[in-house]
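Quick one:
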Amino acid sequence: MTTGSIGAGIVITEGVTATVRHAETPSVIIRQRAVDGTITTISHASPPLTSIMERLGVTASITTECHLPIGAGFGLSAAALLASATALNHLFTLGLTPWDIARHSHVIEVEHRTGLGDVAAAQGGGRVIRHGPGIDAGIERKFDLPDPLYSVSFGPIHTPTVLGSPSQMEKVSSAFPSASPCDAHDFFTKSKQFAERSGLITDSVKKVFLLCDQKNVPSGMTMLGDGVFAYGKKAREVLLPFGKVYEFHVSPTGPGIVEENI
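Output:
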């Protein structure tokens, strides 16, 4: 509970939907839905989601679905855990509070090295600044990005490899800004500087950053993923030459029940 990252990010509307059902044996299906509605099964296993069932003492089938690329720095692991735990709590009437759900999800993320701070951020919405590790640390939430956000992704960066490398983590720590972003513009500036100084930036991201700078479009690197997110009405046009562009907005809230059919 005292392990985790500090930093800043944005909780976005586009996340993970988890459908849970009673089952005699635990099972997990990970699915991705394309723009045309085509659904692809990515995996029939997820150690973190199996672990959350074990931790909560329930047996169920979990099916998760998302639109964004998996493992590309969008925090989908945390989103899947929070969504699944929220749904399991509802299905099995466990009586867990949102804090309980976040606590269990955060522990699973840390144990599996799939993330260090995304659960803490995604407890609620907004542009987030986390001042300490874990879900109980001070968290500022700003709702000062009314326009759309856009992103392109060139592929994943293996999160456990980075989090498990002492030399890489030392470089990441040394690149961390000395002060919190004072406003939304400063957030994007510090985000870009961190990507460059941490050594996590890729050649593909560098090319996108260059064009964003030329067009005066605020941007940052998806962490941890080989991709870029950019803000504002001009951002989509600037990102289009680099591939498929995803659109989303700042989320007003954290996880919740979308549909009930028990």
